[in-house]
Fold each of these.
Amino acid sequence: MTQHVFQTEVQQLLHLMIHSLYSEREIFLRELISNASDACDKLRFQSLTNSALLRGDETLRVDVLPQAEEKLLVIQDNGVGMTEAEAVEHLGTIAKSGTKAFLGSLGEDQKSNANLIGQFGVGFYSAFMVADRIVVESRAASVDSDHGVRWESTGDGNFVTETITRAQRGTTITLHLKDDAKDFLEGWRLRELIKKYSDYVAYPVRLPKHLTDEEKKKGASADLEQVNAGQALWTRPKDGITDDQYKEFYKSACKQWDEPATRLHFSVEGTLSFTALLFVPGQKPMDLFDRDRRGLGLYVRRVFVMDDCRDLLPEYLRFVRGVVDSDDLPLNVSREILQQQDTVAKLRKQLVKRILDHLQKLGSSNEEEEKKAFAAIDANFGPVLREGLVSDFENRERLARVVRYRSTAAPADAPDQKTGLEDYVRRMPEGQKAIYFITAPSLDAAKSSPHLEGFKKKGYEVLFMTDQVDEWVAQHLHEFDKRPLASVAKGVDDLASDEDKKALEESTKTYGGFLGFCKEALADDVSDVRLSNRLTDSPCCLVGEEHGMTPQMEELMRRMGQDMPKQKRILELNAQHPLVEKLQALHASGSEASRLKEYIAVMRDQAVLAEGGRIADPAAFARRVQALLVGAVDSPPQTAKAGG
Ligand code: ADP
């Protein structure tokens, strides 16, 4: 007999299980039946290439056997089983990185909060909610009867394993039920739970037949009977499936704990034949940023082939969960072979198209429920979806109809209301040439950026792109519906009328000397200094070259280890602003150059601050502002002079 210690995260999880009074602890049965069904799936798949594995016991099944007198509940399958090493690994650690990370992040008081259980997949360990001792006996299909394993634990820090002789293949889990969990011995209760949670399971789930008192007296032993419908849900016609059945399938087959935001169930027949049942989760999965994760199970003609099938979905749809059942793939595909299959590429193409079309439809629906569902999807997965605008050239236009942004057009009473590009285009006033956007490190920075001023005045809507991924998107999405996308922080001159342009030329003549002076003073960090039409309230702003990088992008690249030369931008001045007017007058009067240079440096830095950026030398900025304040405090306030 060997003693083992549970991995720390498992101990935390068990602590949660044992010490919380989770009202839905009945789900333990779903978890165990689901594991048993997975074990049958795996064996069926392996037997395709090694039929000897099934020999002698061909009908895969899951039996649920209550033993009332001993207060035992036994769940038994004849699936693939486990070796001792597998039992130690699978029933002593948590493989899922998301769950691990989540548990690690919990504080002590949170750990006693029962509601947390509902937030992540707990699988096998959930049985400790109803049992104070669990014994697992198993034998892998690939080994002989001398190599069985017995695993046992009371859910404290340890478990023990030992090698046993076991004639039958598969796994028997014996739960020693807690006193307050005896209702799980009742036949009707178990039947109800199996129907509720495991009806779709593709293998027979059996219970002992109900015996009359008379029969019991006679000592009759009950035969087993199948309780579940036993047909894969996705193979049934859509109109025969209830919402609840879909939801249960989502929870048990996709191992999710939330309610799906939307689902998509369809079959395709023709040169490519397959059925897909897909869900978008209602909450962010914990492994959302695990880029290798794909939540799709692959079946071939109803036979389970693999979980987490990477080749069927692009990275930016990694949050989709569900199953795909292909009629065309060979049954014995491995992950490696899968990549080379033409069929897989075609399947993937279809899936992506269907998912995006579905989301697009959802997003343009006027139905309250659907609007809500779409808003949740956008809030949870919007940034992930937008990655696709960079990576999936083929579907860029399709995807562009799904993404949403906040914008200057949001009504005052709903400032967070988002808009899609289609609606933006519909609202464009005559004469507006491009779809305008601003990228900024935060929404507040975007909203108060001086770059917006001229666009607001013109009545042109500007989209706020404030997520890190949007910086990338802005580099790739050049066009939508044949209209160019343009950053308001770059050299656009659509704003000015011919008259404006003329006026600007005139002012430039007056300001010429001053502009030249500024350019020289700031030669190290701006490429040009010029007058601008885009400002109304602010004295100045920085704008990029047409194809230049934004400072945020520059920063991103640098953080990714790229050696980035500093990009110089253009400083644009507002000739109507009193500060600019005064500085130019000061320059014209032949004022001391060094003082003027200090003022100009402050002006440049506050342009950076106004767009939410980081100034290069904050200490120098602080020193200059202090000097200005000292000057201001020393001299009598101007208003006092004027007012008398
Ligand atoms: P999950 O099922 O989400 O992977 P669990 O904690 O429920 O997590 O189970 C952990 C692992 O233990 C499973 O992935 C599987 O490898 C193994 N396991 C659990 N139950 C069985 C079973 N009845 N037969 C074979 N293996 C099992």
Amino acid sequence: MAINLNDLNPLYDRHGRVHNYLRIAVTDRCNLRCRYCMPEKVDFVKRTDLLSFEEMLRAISIFREMGIQKLRFTGGEPFMRRDFDHFLTEVAEKFPDLEMHLTTNGTLMKNKVEFLKKTGISSVNLSLDTLKKQRFLEMTRRDSFEQVLGAVEDILDAGIRLKINTVLMKGFNEDELIDLVEWTREKDLSVRFIEEMPFNGGDHVHRAPVSYDQILDEIKKHYSRLEPLENETHSTSYNYKIDGYKGSFGVIPAWSRTICSSCNRIRLTPQGKIKNCLYDEGVFDLKALMSHGADDNELKWSIEQAILSKKKNGFETEQARYASIGGSYESMAKIGG
Ligand code: SAM
Ligand code: SF4
């Protein structure tokens, strides 16, 4: 049945926010071990417990009928999931009216960029926290710096919109802030500095991170004039450009959470749980419902109820989580950051 996405009833929560953006973590497996994301030793989800591609396609179809317009595939590292390429092609063919985006660490992208371009992908977010090879090894515990830089060049050459996600970790890379802004002088990409969140799967005790204000203050010390860019609706980053530079930069207050009032995101974890917020525990198990034979209407009802239970912001959600399970935080790879 042909659906005009603009005719659908928007998926509202109780706080008046429309939800039109679904983020799917296709796996929790990863070939890197970024310190802010996971420890060296990780218990990955059993492959048989992952949401299957078939289930993901069904979920996308249902969400699309509920007003979702934008998809992001993330993880873990999406290219670690076998047949991810094939799945992406299928999504592009079945749902040509949905915007597709990808978040990747860029290490497994050799010869993939042309393929991505053919799928019609709208943008790639690529994680890179440093421009120094040795530091990359320290932060990710793996020696894949050259591959990531290669992916940056390939993506730019292919003309795909590129954002670089940089988590600033105290004591590791905050001294590279200006070098990374300078990178945008000649490169048409957007570097987005992200406040470190506690989702490191127990790697270390999370302390107050390098904050949005500290990041911006530091940058302002070096540049007399920052040109604020108009934010896309629902953008998580506040974006700026320096006059004459090809690229731009942004800051994401992921931990200060000043962006919750315009949140339009729903998350699907590798195991098929729906999450309203990074900080919640998973509001319901979509995979279990599907396995028990729920029909599409039952799934839609459960999704609506889940969205209606969404709390006002990440602080309220974290408080509820703390009351229920205390202060432990899973790896971001198990949520899909
Ligand atoms: N493996 C892919 C990658 O690294 O881009 C996709 C998954 S990764 C979990 C998605 C994003 O979450 C990355 O940009 C990463 O930098 C970010 N991330 C992971 N752990 C984080 C943390 N504790 N705080 C803030 N951002 C984090
Ligand atoms: Fe892997 Fe991405 Fe997590 Fe780094 S941030 S360990 S690349 S999932």
